[in-house]
Design a protein that fits this description.
The complex is a heterodimer of chains A (about 400) and B (about 110). By secondary structure, chain A is α/β, with parallel strands linked by helices. Chain A has one domain: Vaccinia Virus protein VP39 (Rossmann fold, 3-Layer(aba) Sandwich), CATH 3.40.50.150. Chain A has 16 helices and eight strands. Chain A has an eight-stranded mixed β-sheet, with helices on both faces. In chain A, helix 3 crosses helix 6, helix 4 crosses helix 10 and helix 6 packs across helix 10. With about 110 residues, chain B is mainly alpha-helical. Chain B contains four helices and no strands. Classes of the chains: A alpha/beta (about 400), B mainly alpha (about 110). The interface between A and B is medium-sized, with 40 and 27 residues.
């Protein structure tokens, strides 16, 4: 086996850069918990009673709460802190990446050429990058997923990889396992006899969630697609370091080049809320086409409005993500009829599934298993404590 | 060396009625971050010195400045406060300038009326 250096080791932050990253992680934890609790108190003690006095009833929707809260200093300060922490997340890792771009490119090239784990990287420069990616930098990540600053660039992949580690670094429960682990453990507990032979991940970015799902199904031949070449190059190089065999290809999930009836399992992780409703419908159709009969498409997501049943969650989730974090489709995603998306795509209504799941890493295994079996409900929806899985069997 | 962009492309929605408030918040958070970084570096230095037996961390804790040192530190703190709150001084200077201009301008205005 050819020896390719671990691409993660190429980026070496200085003492102070590391301190800066740790600061941002802790800042984010503080903003998401302590400061968010203050905003909630202001709502409960001041804004909600004011609304009730005016309208003779409590607010019913996130929009009503937003209108009542938008001029509250606590809310404005919270949004400003969220936004600054979001920017500082990316800023805290950029200098260390900038210093090593030539070396990063070199390692990724070596990984693509040697392919020690037997996977592959298939890039297609003719793939048109969707406007949803080119028109605005999602998550305020400057340069988004796709921008190439040099030939064969991986910088934006590295930025997403290291930035998301800072992003969740203060939330210890996320480190034990995030969305991918939640999907994987759900499948293992709920469908113990399900053994996918061929697995496809859509919108894989740098592959973290897919790698977690692969751990649950080590025998599955794995494929992954994304539109962003820098993310794919980085993911492929990481796969070599992790000893994972994955066939990466640059494709739009709306138009896959895989034959019909190819896969036993198709997954997405926090992908659906970043794309338009129209695009999501096309992708469900495409998943139906490439799935084998008896195959499953399953998606991990934030809680839709109907499932959350909490207008305050709708207020914070939609206001922050959609209006201030460059995720314009969050509100539309959370309000669509997902069952209809899947039945319109060809899946039988009886084969549709959806479930609220606690974040696997947050709760003890017994609590997680009880939620999967429907014997308990996740205690909270905020701050990465619980997610929503939806999909369908073909 | 390639420079990665620092600003994200996309719509900029106002948060506060006055955009300056947002800039101030951003600067305060950034400043807090740099303070955290500086403290951590000092912590590293203390731990390394302690590990090498150059000084004990308890000595740092027990250190009490004499009058001369306290005098130097007073001056440094005072200057630091002046630098950080420079902008507040500027507001007073602006008000003084405005007042001076208005006293200079008033006589010609009266003359025109005549």
């Amino acid at each position: 086996m050819d020896n390719v250096p671990n691409i993660d080791d190429v980026v070496q932050p200085t003492h102070d850069e590391h301190s800066r990253q740790r600061f941002v992680s802790v800042l984010r934890k503080h903003v998401l918990t302590e400061f968010a609790a203050d905003v909630r108190t202001v709502y409960d003690k001041r804004a909600a009673p004011r609304f009730t006095r005016k309208h003779g009833r409590a607010p019913k929707t996130g929009l009503e709460i937003r209108k009542e809260m938008k001029d509250e200093p606590a809310f404005q300060e919270w949004i400003a802190l969220m936004q600054q922490a979001q920017y500082m997340t990316w800023w805290s890792v950029q200098p260390a990446i900038e210093r090593r771009i030539p070396e990063l490119v070199q390692v990724a090239r070596a990984a693509a050429a040697a392919n020690p784990t037997g996977g592959s990287l298939r890039l297609d420069p003719s793939v048109e990058i969707p406007k949803t990616v080119t028109e605005l930098d999602v998550h305020l990540m400057p340069g988004c997923f796709h921008t190439e600053h040099v030939t064969d660039d991986v910088a934006q992949g590295a930025l997403y990889h290291f930035g998301t580690q800072v992003f969740s670094g203060g939330l210890s429960h996320r480190l034990r396992g995030g969305w991918g682990a939640t999907t994987a453990q759900f499948l293992k507990i709920r469908y113990p006899h399900f053994r996918p032979a061929k697995y496809l991940d859509l919108g894989c970015t740098v592959g973290r969630e897919m790698f977690s799902i692969m751990d649950a199904f080590p025998a599955a031949e794995t494929f992954a697609v994304d539109v962003a070449a820098p993310a794919l190059r980085y993911a492929h190089a990481r796969a070599q370091a992790l000893g994972k065999t994955v066939h990466f290809s640059q494709q739009n999930a709306e138009r896959l080049d895989f034959p019909d009836n190819s896969f036993d399992l198709v997954t997405t992780s926090f992908f659906y809320h970043e794309i338009s409703v129209q695009s999501g419908r096309k992708i469900a159709k495409e998943a139906f086409r490439v799935l084998k009969p008896g195959g499953l498409m399953i998606n991990q997501e934030m809680m839709p409005v109907a499932a959350a049943k909490d207008p305050y969650y709708d207020f914070t989730a939609d206001t922050w993500n959609e209006f201030y974090n460059n995720e314009p489709f969050v509100g539309a995603f959370r309000r669509q009829n997902l069952r209809k998306v899947f039945t319109d795509a060809g899946f039988k209504a009886a084969n549709y599934l959806e479930i609220k799941l606690p974040n696997y890493g947050t709760w003890p295994d017994a609590v997680f298993a009880a939620c999967v079996r429907g014997e308990a409900v996740p205690p909270e929806v905020e701050n990465g404590q619980a997610w929503f899985s939806f999909g369908a069997w073909k | 060396m390639v420079s990665l962009p620092r600003r994200a492309k996309g719509p900029k929605r106002p948060i506060f009625a006055d955009p300056v408030t947002e800039h101030l918040m951003a600067m305060v958070v950034a400043l807090t971050g740099e303070l955290s970084v500086a403290r951590e570096r000092l912590d590293t230095v203390e731990r390394l010195l302690d590990r090498r037996g150059v000084l004990k961390r308890t000595e740092v804790e027990a250190f009490r400045p004499d009058a001369a040192i306290e005098g130097e530190r007073f001056k440094e703190r005072d200057e630091l406060i002046g630098r950080v709150f420079q902008v507040l001084h500027e507001e007073a200077e602006r008000a003084t300038l405005e007042a001076e201009r208005s006293t200079v301008k008033r006589p010609p205005a009266k003359r025109r009326k005549r």
